[in-house]
Request: fold
Amino acid sequence: MNTNIINFNTTEQAGANLALRNRDYNGADFDVGYKPMYIYPQNDPIEPLKIDNKYASVREDNHAVLGIHSINYKPVTHKEMIDTQRDVIIRSGMADSSIQETISLDAAGKKCYVKHTLPNHNLTTPDGDTAALTFLSINSFCGTWAYQISAGASQGACLNNQVWTDGAATLYKARHNRHLDIEHAAKVITNAVPIFMEQVDLWDQWCNTTCSDGQAVYIFAALLGVQDDINFIQMAQHKDVSVAPKEVTRNRNFMYLWNKWNSHYKNTLGDNLWAVYNTMTDWSTHIQSKSVNVAGLQIKRSSKIQKVLSNHYIFEVAA
Reply:
């Protein structure tokens, strides 16, 4: 996987806008062609038959096949995705010399994400940490990712990727079909940026909302989709992992969350929803593996956190 991190070196607004528009794409700006597909019937290996309603996306530079699509597939190139996110920052008047841009592309060019971190646009979290505004877009030709662009934040101290609630209107996600509209996506995110400064109020509410061990267990179980499992229900009631059933202790994701909550976040931030939230973002961010797509797994875990923040009754009450 190719990754580049770029620091921009211009201070004038117009110059910063131009510098952002004209950055390198780290190999993600290759042209893509869309080709019809054919098969060779067994009884006639010479004359191919065209496959109706199917076509392939192919890199123009090396002719590698990126994906097979139905006739209703609406493609977005990685370059278009990157340009859209850069344009969001420019429209919002936030381009400056402090911006970091990370473009990551898999070896075949099928998947790509771009992340911008804006250190000069930040706020102070309830525990005194600083969170900088970030933008993240993802795209794929192979069906792994729908097109998505989002605005959020990262805590500088531990590099946890913050996950905003759905109510903050900071996420646009669409499959590659007729409903996908990247211009509309840019407008959604641009309009949502001012809400960033209001996020601190929600964090303060979480910091002032007590959360017991049992409630934390239930939130972590909901995050992992096992909240209806009797073993985790009993765990939430007893709050003692030493007597928990093996089904609980064998769940590595749950045990990671539970141990982080007890050994670190509850002690340093207090037994409140802010500590629970930081425990979850720790789980979604710190993935040590050479056998999985770390960026893809981080995005999946962040989506699960968004679902819990939006639907779980404890966070609804706190909000």
